Amino acid sequence: MLDDHVVLITGGGSGLGLGVARHCLEEGAQLAILEYDEAKVLGLKKEFGDDILVVHGDVRNIDDLRACRSQIEDRYGRLTSLIGAQGIFDGNVRLADIPVERVGELFDEVFSINVKGYALTARIMHDLLQAEEGAIVLTASQAAFAADGGGAAYTSSKGAVVSLVNQLSFEFAPRVRVNAVAPTGIAGSQLRGPGALDLHESKQSDIPADAFRAEFEWGTPLQHLPTPEEYGPFYALLASRHNKVMTGQTVIADSGTLNRALMSLGQRISSYPSA
């Protein structure tokens, strides 16, 4: 799928981004990963060695993004596809439970990573992608389409990603295709919490895995909690030149969650495991 493609993945050091990176490699991509966390950078270098380009940097920092671009040009000479996978969760904290003095800081933090980071990366990599008639694939979320996939900051940021895809697909046409994948639950997700709520040391994976899996699978028609790698094929197709017809679209990869039962909900609740 990705032979003769140079792919940059932002936030590819763990969780969804790492799973997508592994799949892209299997599909033949020459790969670059931009990662913020120094420990994850070391982990990437340990796993992949010199097979990929690993860059330490922050998607909110223009200088870091320009340095990443320069390293990609030095090593590969071009860029075919950009996959945005970085993100931060908001702990699913209700707006009414957040001290009003912290609301602005929370929204600034979440939006700067989840939305502005995508816009800045797209801007800085645009002409490289245009030269290759390439593609951008961003990460939205099922939370953009239904309540209770996070708190107000997270869900609204993911809604903003959907709108950003719509706008960039219009502005970058006809030479760059822009789409998104909207995952639902992810096994072993490493999304951290926001510093604005003192949750920067917490991760979604801190939730007991068995309990999270049981609750998720009970509420979804497919009854399967996807691994990060299982989302990889969606990203790979949208990032590849094999996709010649889709732009401005968000693929909702939700295990059927938005098609879940309503009238039979009572019956399903009675079957919920007590543990």
Automatic annotation (TrEMBL):
- Which keywords, in A-to-Z order, does the entry hold? Oxidoreductase
Do you know which PROSITE patterns this protein is assigned to? Answer: ADH_SHORT
Any one GO MF term held by the record is: oxidoreductase activity, acting on NAD(P)H, oxygen as acceptor
Return the InterPro entries for the record: NAD(P)-bd_dom_sf, Sc_DH/Rdtase_CS, SDR_fam
Q: Where are the annotated coiled coils located?
A: none
Instruction: Report the superkingdom from the record.
Output: Bacteria
Similarity-based family: Belongs to the short-chain dehydrogenases/reductases (SDR) family.
Protein name as catalogued: SDR family oxidoreductase
Q: Source species, please?
A: Streptomyces scabichelini
